Amino acid sequence: MTRAGAIFEKGRLAALSGDFDCAREYFRQAVEVLRPPSGPAPSDPELLSFSIQLYESALRYEALAGPAEEAGTSDGQVASELTEIAEPQASAEDIVEAKEAIASDTVGVTYDIPMTVNEPVLKILAAFQNDLHGVIARGLARSGRYIPMIHRIFEEEGLPGTSRRLP
User: Fold this and answer.
1) FRET pair for 139, CA 20 to 30 Å: which of 69, 88, 118, 150?
2) For residue 33, which of 8, 68, 59, 66 has the smallest C-alpha distance?
3) Per-residue pLDDT reduced to its tens digit, 110-145
4) How far apart are CA 44 and CA 163, in angstroms?
5) pLDDT for position 116
6) DSSP state at residue 106
């Protein structure tokens, strides 16, 4: 575990410096130290727990290396889809429709944390329901692989139950 941890640390530093190809290679090596490709899965509970934590940590750092269309371009420019999200546009009619949707969809729903629905929130919801629907759909499709890790982290951090049940 010590050797795998040291190799992982090299990958972490590489990821933080922006060298994602190098980071991926270090992460691969760290995982192979714990479970060689031809070997059996670890059976020791401590080793198994460490392996899972190491793997999930590697996934977090690899997420930093998302494609340019997800986060930005290699020259530091923000992708056009993200610019649209930063300042969403919605008509007054779209905002009224979003307000009606919230009213009908939340009847009898309770939350562990306060929910504020004001004009800026309605504007964002309206924009996402209409013009930005495709952007959100693609983001949700890509996010599926991270949901179990997100739920575990929320639970470890003691977030309320409704936060852990996010889709």
Assistant:
1) 118
2) 8
3) 877 778 888 888 888 888 777 767 766 777 666 666
4) 32
5) 83
6) T
CB atoms inside a 10 Å sphere around CB 24:
17
With a CB cutoff of 8 Å and minimum separation 6, the contacts of 10 are 26
Domain boundaries, the chain: 2-65, 71-167
Which pLDDT tens digit goes with each residue over 28-47? 888 888 777 676 766 778 88
First to last CA, the chain: 34
The answer to whether the pTM exceeds 0.70 is no
SS3 at position 73? coil
More confident residue, 36 or 65: 36
| Cβ contact 101:73 at 8 Å | no
For residue 31, which amino acid is it?
V
Residue 109 token pair: 């729903």
In terms of Cα–Cα distance, which of 163, 88, 162 is closest to 120?
88
Other CB atoms within 10 A of residue 147 CB: 12
CB contact set of 128 (below 8 Å; sequence gap of 6+)? 88, 135, 136
Distance, CA of 69 to CA of 80 (rounded, Å): 8
